[in-house]
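Issue: ligand-bound run for calcium ion - logging full I/O for the record.

Environment: standard queue, default settings, no custom constraints.

Inputs:
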Amino acid sequence: MLFGTYSPALVISSVIVAVFASYTALDMAGRISTATARAEPWWLGGGATAMGIGIWSMHFVGMLAFSLPIATGYDTGITLLSLVIAVALSAFALWIVCQPTLPVSRLFGGAVVMGAGVASMHYTGMAAMRMTPAIHYDSFMFAASVAIAIAASGAALWIAFRLRGEGGHTRKLRMGAALVMGAAIVGMHYTGMLAAEFPVGSICRAARDGASSLWLAPVIIVGTLAVLAIALITSILDLRLEARTSVLATSLANANRELSHLALHDSLTQLPNRVLLEDRLDRAIGAAERQGAMFAVMFLDLDGFKAVNDAYGHRIGDILLREVAQRLGKAVRGEDTVARFGGDEFVVIAPVLEAADAADVAQQILRAVETPVTAGGHELRVSCSIGIAMYPGDGQDQHELLSNADAAMYHAKASGRARFSYFETSMQQDVHDQLQLLHDLRSAIASGQLILHYQPKFRAPRGPVIGAEALVRWQHPTLGLIPPGDFIPLAEKTGLIVPIGEWVLDQACRQMKAWLDAGNAGWTIAVNLSSLQFGHAGLVDTVSDTLARHQLAPQSLTLEITESTAMRDVEASLATLDKLNSMGVKISIDDFGTGYSSLLYLKRLPATELKIDRGFVRDLPQDPEDAAIVSAIVALGRTLNLTIVAEGVETQQQQEFLTTLGCNSFQGYLLGRPMSAENFLEAAAQASELTS
Ligand code: C2E
Ligand code: CA
Ligand code: CA
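Outputs:
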């Protein structure tokens, strides 16, 4: 038997190649499992080639490390065949570990196929020596080498499968695994070599024409390492590129998502905004049309929001809106959409089986909004009015649905707030009527359709008359006498209140001057100012010009502003009121008790009078709560040195009760309704007769 010897340098080289090849193979497996579908075949092909060359060259360098005491060489064709086997089994191995799962049966099958492949590569490579007589293999060692090949393949497949994917941790694990795998491959090879027995007198028929082993080893080692390095570098660079691209793509996607969220949502409440609402409405219409279904469009407007904003400022107002928005989201069902339409207006789209179902949703909303909200230490109470329009009954497109739901909302507000109304065709008429009314109102002053009525004010308990409040009416050519409640809000909304207010002030001062000249000394005339008028820059000049024009003493004029008007923009109000006060004009706080006054601020107001809102007077003397409120207001007025006027006095009992509580003056139907200037003097004279 011929005994071979091993070149230590080449053995070490073969081990290095094996470990490097294993690492590359593991890396490739990781790349394939994360690559896109299109790139996958390329990684599989390239990876199999690199890995196959690696395994094969380990084997081949191992062969070169072995030398017999005779001339040896390798048959090129057979050697190439062993290389093809190595590449093919690498492809098979990579394919297995890139499957989404690796069940035990597949692991075993794969290990056997791959182990057999490695063994056949090895023994094919040995055959390339073309020994005569043939190499004799020790059957035990042969079996051991095949068993090691199968076991090593199984371990390699399992490790590669587990180490797919990327991450800082995988890299170190992969390094360790490559050592194990490399050792297994090397072990298989050298066990196979031990199995080989070369009988004495063997001739290597490949020795003459085969490649010389002297220069072959370095060429193969360097070539293989180069192939592996290129494969690895490509993989790493590509991974970096992919990672960068994916970071870019994610941040782009995030930015896009944020942008579209910003464009489609209200920044204060995070609810869908008008743009998104319109889109959702279009979709709801499309879906309902296809399925023959119906849905409700609900238009919501908060009641009393303006008063909160006026009294506490926008910051608190914003907190309230956010809270309401949140409650709306909880009150509706999962399939409903809540959007902020603008200001204190919201819209809900609710798919329903029948129109009556919308009432349940509306009830939930009403209840949710009515629970008091605590903001900045204040307890705020608001409610909302809801208008409901049904698709397809109440409109065919989003514009029609929204405007009809809006009309129904106005109806709900007009019927007393904190309720919901279903749209009816007559409400469309209302909207139309409002527009017509506004059109008519623009010409009302010029055509002399506005008139003033005067309601007497009495000193408690029974007179005499101490003045009058001027109350505007509109003598409409076709609609008759319109009360201020029906057109003042419209005038406020459109700014028409400013010229109307100037006209009222002028007329009232002219009338007062005439009454004073007629001998009614000490009377004062009260004129109402709306909040828009009060905030108007020209107010102070208008008042002083008007007084001068009619040569009326400022002391004869009282300006009534509502509590919520006075509380809106506190500092600006104070500045205006101080100017009016220093001019000598009296200030009365109207509808007192309905807003949110702060006592501190009230103390600074240069007011002369508090007018208890008639809502507190209506149920006197029966209602103990109202009685308590009125006596508290009287006590407050006393402390602040203000005159207390009770308005809306309709019964004798009320008059007596209010007198006992300490009110200074009265106004109400019991003592005198608002009346024309002609009737006023006569009524006043009669009243004086009664009291004297
Ligand atoms: P206000 O300033 O609180 O005026 C008192 C309202 O109560 C008047 O209604 C008056 O007719 C009514 N009233 C008087 N006594 C009684 C009573 O015993 N029982 C009942 N139930 N009501 C009584 P009117 O004239 O309809 O005015 C309504 C509101 O319109 C006024 O409330 C005021 O805010 C506004 N307004 C009236 N005239 C003008 C004006 O010239 N300019 C501005 N800006 N607002 C005005
Ligand atoms: Ca008033
Ligand atoms: Ca009032």
